[in-house]
Structure formats: structure tokens, C-alpha cells
Amino acid sequence: MEQASNPQQVIIIGAGFSGLAAALALGSLGWRVQVIERDGAPPEGGPEAAFSGWARRGVAQMRHSHVFLSRLTNLMRDHYPGLLADMTAAGCRILEFRDGLPPGLLADYIPAPEDADLSFVSSRRVTLELVLRRHVAAMANVEILSDCKVRGLLYERQGAPISVTGVEFEKDGTPQQFRADLVIDASGRGSRSIAWLEKAGVSIQEETAPAGIFYFTRHYRLRANMQEPPRGVHPTVGDLDYLKYGVFRADNGWFSLTLAAPEIETQLCDAVRVPEIFDHICALLPGVAPWTDVARAEPMSQVFAMGGLRSHWRHFCARGNPVALNFFVIGDAAVCSNPLYGRGCSAGFLQAHLLAGIFTKSSNSFERALLFDTMMRREIRPYYDLMVRQDTQSIRRAHALRNGDYHPNLRARLARRFFEDGIRPASRGDIKVMRALMRGFHMLENPNLALQDPDILLRITRYLLRGRTRNGELLGPPLGPERHVMMEKLSLNNEVTP
Ligand SMILES: Cc1cc2nc3c(=O)[nH]c(=O)nc-3n(C[C@H](O)[C@H](O)[C@H](O)COP(=O)(O)OP(=O)(O)OC[C@H]3O[C@@H](n4cnc5c(N)ncnc54)[C@H](O)[C@@H]3O)c2cc1C
Hints:
Layout: E1 9-13, H1 17-27, E2 32-36, H2 47-53, H3 70-79, H4 81-89, E3 93-95, H5 103-106, E4 120-122, H6 125-137, E5 142-145, E6 148-156, E7 162-171, E8 174-179, E9 182-185, H7 193-199, E10 205-210, E11 213-222, E12 237-239, E13 244-249, E14 254-262, H8 266-272, H9 275-283, H10 289-292, E15 297-299, E16 304-306, E17 310-315, E18 317-318, E19 321-322, E20 324-325, E21 327-329, E22 335-336, H11 344-361, H12 365-379, H13 381-403, H14 410-429, H15 431-441, H16 454-466, H17 468-475, H18 483-489
Helix pairs in contact: 1-6, 1-11, 3-4, 3-11, 4-6, 11-12, 14-15, 14-16, 14-17
Flavin-adenine dinucleotide binds near residues 18, 38 and 342.
């Protein structure tokens, strides 16, 4: 990365994924960076020690399955190759585009040059964050202060907007202050920035939306001499409407399973947290059962559960003007999305990288703030808007299914049919459709682009017109039991709420 001519002093609040990414990007400019983190440092040792012993109260989702997108992997490959090398040395894997192809596409697969951009890192989140943290901590101009909680912002007011000049934090119960040229808030979804700015008389507009879904994750490790199951006709990721599932291949022989249910499925949500029931459900899902077979793998953790999740977008520019200068909010602290889409870490890393680019482009505080806001709207906003639309539909559908009164209107029926009988089979039968959808999923392209491309639309329409019988060969057998069968098998009350 280009070196800045005027090294600056930067404070980053939070040593989570985004804060560490910002330290990496700004440290690479030669700037002096202090990262202030409320949690303790990781224990000595490798991924296993960190998985079992690194207390991360500040990141509740630390031990949930994480997918890391190609956009993140490509950034590391192109700008931070040493970090990517550290990750693979620690056992993180790079999965290629071909690794995710269904059998029908794999048989005739001819790699295209652009497929190299669709590879992605696959690992436990703890492992990836551990490696990122150690890589960043080894940089001469970066210092990470653990067990320090930021309590507020220092600022100057010479008219509007205010100018942030540092932070107040607490170390061992003692209040302290640090001053800096720039402060970056990367303190995650629970960021106190809105409250801190309010104290300075600045109000922040926030959009929020419910994610509507509960997450459950359990980790497993392959037994000695056991391999991961070969890719079969049953997908390892699927959506049964009342339950979504996914197998996440990870580092060092580990993998995890995530089950996600609409929040309204309260009985199911209560039941899934019991390890035996979690494994029972896995055994009933054909795409998952070979993974959790006790002869192949052993469970390595409890079932981690997380609900009450909301998405948010916080506006740090109002009517075209920044609300605070020399202060940037990145990662979940700024924009938080439904984990289902697996974008949070990649989005935080991208923001950190692009922020460093903005700093090298402009030294004017006002202009930097506006450039950052423009970048967020260009790079992140299209994903946020699409996600909120999709989540709203899913929540509506889950309520109707649960209550037994699902009577979608014509538009909703057509959209569903286009997905079920068009997009889904086309993505399993046509490599060009698969590539186009994956480019949107992996944040390489605006997520709306694929379905605006006439060629891709035509290809999908062909599958729509072929009809269900012929598409059935591509879609394979059902992903799992219907809701009432699952509820019966789990001995759960199957009654619907009138
Ligand atoms: C169930 C679940 C599954 C997910 N799955 C995926 C996935 O598959 N892929 C993906 O990319 N994303 C996923 N996400 C989202 C992803 O975890 C977040 O987007 C990501 O952690 C955001 O990183 P961050 O650094 O912005 O915030 P965080 O990871 O939350 O880090 C914030 C840091 O700030 C520290 N901190 C907080 N307050 C203070 C303070 N006052 N002073 C000092 N330090 C402070 C915290 O201790 C923490 O270390 C998932 C989220 C959930 C809930």
C-alpha cells in the first residue's frame, strides 16, 4: 500500500475483526496505531488453545460459524499476502469455486480465469481472528492495549461539526485519556458512539430492522484418519423455510454446523440448544447427516445460541455534512447485517482498507468524512438494502407458515416461483448463472447485477420453462423432512397458533 507522507497518530476502539483490519491498513501506511480493547489478550498457543481459552465477552458471536467471502480473501491476496500466508500456515483453508459446485456442474467444469477470484478462506472465526491479531501485533508501529474499556470521546468544538481529539478509557479501574489525530470506532454492534456523540450535542440517525432469526452453532472435529464426506446430491447448505442449515468447513480438521430458525418458532428454538436434539436434527438432514455421523466426527463444543438480532445502518453524515471530524465508525459499529448473509467481517475489512485509501487521497478532515460516506453508500449500501427487503419477506413468510395461514399474493407467488423453479435449478445446472450469483454473494459485484443481466435472466427463464419434473433431476431429493414430520420426530407440539 502507498506510504503516507505525514505519519499520524490513530486510536482504534476495539480489536475485533474490523479494528484489527484498520490497524493493519493504517499500520501499513507507516502510521502510529493504538488499538484499545476491553477484552483480554489471547492465551499462548495455537488455534486449539484460543478456541477453548480465549474469553471474548465483547464478541458474543465469536464461536458461531463464520463464512469469509472472496472479497476479503482477494483483499488479503492482493494487499496483505503475508497475512494470508500466516492464515494458511495456521491451518486455515482456501476453498476454490470448484469446491462448491454441485455434482451436475462439477462433472463438466472447465475453470475460467475469473474463477480464481471466487476462492475464499475457510476457518473457525477464533482461528482467523487470532492470526489477524498476532500479525497486526507484530507490526512495529501498532500497539494493542487489552483489558481497557473506552468510556467516551474527547472533542473540540469550534462551530459545527465537532472535532474528535481522543478517547477516555479505563484501565484497572483507573480513568485515562489518549489524544490522537484520528479516532476510529470499531467496537461492534454494541458501540456507544451514538451516546458519546449525543453527550457532545450531536445526534445520529439510525435505521434498524429485525433479522427475525435465531442461530445455533455446534463445532465438531474429524476423528483420526477420517475425511470430510464427498460432495453428494444433498447440498450442505439448505433452507426448509422453518429451518435453515449449513456445514462450515474449518481449519485443522474442524467443522461446524449452524441451524437457524425463525424467532417465531419458539418451541423449536428452545429445543435446538440441547446438544442431543441438535444432533438428532442433523441426523434427519441428508446433506448434514454424513458429517455428524459419530463414526466420522466428534462434537467439540456445546450448542452456542444467539437471537434478538437486529440490523442497523447509522448515519454519520447528515444532509451532506459530517457530524464529527477526525472520527470514523466502521464494521458492525456502523452497519450491522443479518449473519445469514455472512458479510460482516468481509465488509468491516473492506471498509478498513478503503478508509486507509481515503486517508492517502485527502488530508482534509471534511473531505475525508464525505469520501468515507460516499464509499459506504457505494460499496455497502446495496447489500444492506437488498438484505432488509429479503429479511422482511422471510419474516412475513415465517409468521404465515407458523400460523398456518400462508396465502401469499400474486406478486409474492411469482417471486417465489421464479426463485424455486428458475434461479435454484439454473444455479445448479448452468455454470454462468452460478458464477454470476456467486460474484454477488461474495461481494465482488453489486448484488443486484446478476438479475439485471439479460443473458443471465434468459438462462434462468429457460429453467423456469423446462418445468418442475426436468428441474427435479438437478434439485435432487428433498433437503429434509417437512415441518410437521420434524416436529413429530422431535416430539414437539406441532400445533399452529390460530
Ligand atoms: C451468529 C452470527 C454469525 C455471524 N456469521 C458471520 C459470517 O459467517 N461471516 C461474517 O463475515 N460475519 C458474520 N457475522 C458478523 C460478524 O461476526 C461481525 O460483522 C463482525 O464481528 C464485526 O466485526 P467488528 O470488529 O466490527 O465488531 P466485533 O467483532 O463485535 O468487535 C468489536 C470489538 O470491540 C471491543 N469493544 C467493544 N466495546 C468496547 C469499548 N468500549 N472499549 C474497547 N473495546 C470495545 C469488543 O470487545 C470487540 O473486541 C455473524 C454474526 C453473528 C451474530
